Amino acid sequence: MTESSNSDRGELMSQPDVAAGELSEPLPRAHQHSGKKWLIPAITALGIVYGDIGTSPLYAFQIALTATGHPTPTHSDVLGLVSLIFWAILAVVALKYVTVVMRADNEGEGGILALLSLVISTKQINRRGLPTLLILGIVGAAFIYGDGIITPAISVLSAMEGLEVPAPALTQWVLPLTLMVLVGLFSIQFRGTGQIGQFFGPVMIAWFLVIAVLGLSEILRTPAILAAADPRYAIGYLVHGGKIVLAVVGAAFLALTGAEALYADMGHVGATAIRRAWFGVVLPALVLSYFGQGALVLAHPEKAGNPFFELAPGWAALPLVLLATMATIIASQALISGAFSLTRQAMQMHLLPRMQIRSTSGRHQGQIYLGAINWSLMVGSILVVIGFRTSTNLGAAYGIAVSGTMLVTSILLFNVVRKKWRWPLPAAAALIGLFATVDVIFLGANATKFVDGGWFPLVVGALLAFLMFTWRSGAIEVQRRLEEMTIPFDKFLTVIDEQVITRIPGCAVVFTRAERHTSPLLIQQVRHNRVLHENVILMAIEPVGRPVVHARERFEITSLGHGFYRVVVKIGFLQTPDLPTYVKGCVRLGLDCARDEIHYLVAYEHVVRRPRRSHFPIVLWHIFSMMSKVGVRLTDFLNVPEEHVFEVGIKVQI
After folding, report:
1. Nearest-5° Cα angle at 164, 163 to 165
2. What pLDDT, on the 0 to 100 scale, is given for residue 281?
3. Which is deepest, 172, 203, 328, 442, by most CB within 10 Å?
4. Cα separation, 361 vs 346, whole angstroms
């Protein structure tokens, strides 16, 4: 008999909230950022989402000019590059991501794994075999981590290099100052993206205002640069550019970095805030800055070495460096926040081991902090700065992984457009074909930088993808072996009826992954101790392909007889399991035995390799074993109080 009736659900919703908002209903996303409150989320979006793409004028145009191979840029170089960057921003960022991709949200959440969950079911993710879309999703997600390492490095380093314009003697301090700023950036992440975004937002407003004014002033001096708005200059440069075209296109792609992070960070501030900030502030400022740099180089080709900082008058050079430093610190925030969200989604999809997650906001479930990811990104960024030493060198490493992720996003988006939005094939193929063509062009252009540093994000991405595939394979194998160790529950009831089993007062909550069979932990308890509590709740957690499962639809409670109850708790990929809160939810649904003193029984799975006949390759076994050991304890992950938990070790051979 299933007890989760409509009346129970109505009772649940009429009661006051239980604990930490886990059972409370978050505000509908359509209302979170509406009315008079839209301004603060938009400012927060500037601080969290747009730092990366907003600071690309620091280095994108400069590196593109260097890629031409001309000591002094020609007239066609300048107009062609500015036109190329302008139309790339409109096509990729404004049209593809802000207008189309952000509509493919999973109940307000973005990112490549959220997109993947729209086109592939949870059962497909957790079963044996590797669907093509799952492979693409894992590879695309892994590449984002490589981008997350390089973004802070190139952003901060390019700002510090601005010191060389007003004070060449400070060149030797560029690297030490960069490393100090990076350490400081990652050290404040524990405060949460909400506080960081609201602090950084005004700084980014100042940044976009300054780069817009500097660009506009130079455009007014050399209005001939406005001709670059004609797409024929971009097309002509691509057609007649010769051997340098791929290198130049790969460099120009740096103006688009941050678009994927924009989508991944959508859950932190909301799509509406991101769109308003883009069209109202970011896009106009970027266009004015790139056109202003083009105007400067058009009039003074000798200033092509660092056109961004050359825009500023002499007295403003040092203040601009300081502002750029703050802006590049913020630039790193988009990728760091995106990496946190991506990791939690990967954990819920059984692609990564359990890690400690700390919520940094009582209102927005997307605002979290993961220490393990934060410090790993910091170490990676520091090593990258030490290894590549200049932003020009890092520019060669930047782009190939991001362009690969963008192509994967287009492929997954095509499936969303066809399966979810029900577009006819010709319309879907036309739109996504346009996006994919641009992605392929940029991917091919960035591939030419492989030897010069493009290999680095590919190696990082390949390593992380390999770890994800390994963890998924091991987790599936462990689950299969656990299912072999279970027995049907009616048979278990027969066993305890036939044997002398002592039932002691109280209620035990047994966490189990065997949703329809008997938990191996329960079998061990009866076999060795011959003792059971008077009431036993078999609690299983079932991840679903949605970000949030609301309280009214979260629980399925079934009475199994003999004092046993099966509770299946459905959670989204933005929700962190919490057994004590779920027990309180059971009480509110009328499960009276959950009012008693609760004893939590949790199995510690000691995974070992089969001595013979193991189907799990030895190399993968060692890697999976190592990853298992670095993951947090299950009791900590489930937030089970230490004084009420009883852990039972179960040996699982794979």
Report:
1. 90
2. 92
3. 328
4. 21
Instruction: Count other C-beta atoms under 10 Å from residue 343's C-beta.
Output: 21
Report pLDDT digits (tens) over 112-164: 888 888 888 766 666 666 778 888 888 888 888 887 788 888 878 888 888 77
Q: Are 189 and 374 in contact (CB under 8 A)?
A: yes
Question: How many other CB atoms sit within 10 Å of the CB of residue 199?
Answer: 14
Sequence-distant (≥ 6) Cβ neighbours of residue 157 within 8 angstroms? 174, 175, 178, 385, 390, 391, 394
Q: Is the pLDDT of residue 502 over 80?
A: yes
What strands lie across the sheet with 555-561, from one edge to the other?
Answer: 555-561, 564-571, 531-543, 502-511, 598-608, 645-653
R_g of the chain computed on alpha carbons:
27
What the block records as the tokens of 266 is 């959508």
- Euclidean distance between the first and final Cα of the chain, in Å? 36
Residue 503's nearest CA partner among 527, 478, 544, 535 is 535
Residue 439 is predicted with a pLDDT of 92
Written as one letter, the residue type at 337 is: S
Nearest to 474 by CA among 604, 356, 625, 348: 625
Structure tokens at 249: 């296109």
What is the rounded distance in angstroms from the CA atom of residue 367 to the CA atom of residue 341?
A: 8
- Reading phi first (left if > 0) and then psi (alpha if -120 to 50, else beta), residue 350 is in left
Closest to 155 (Cα-Cα) out of 78, 257, 80 = 257
DSSP H or E segment with residue 1: none
Residues 76 and 83: their CA atoms lie apart, in Å, by 10
How many Å separate Cα 257 from the centre of its chain? 15
State how far the Cα of 339 lies from the Cα of 334, in Å rounded to an integer. 9
What residues have CB less than 8 Å from 425, skipping those under 6 apart?
Answer: 418
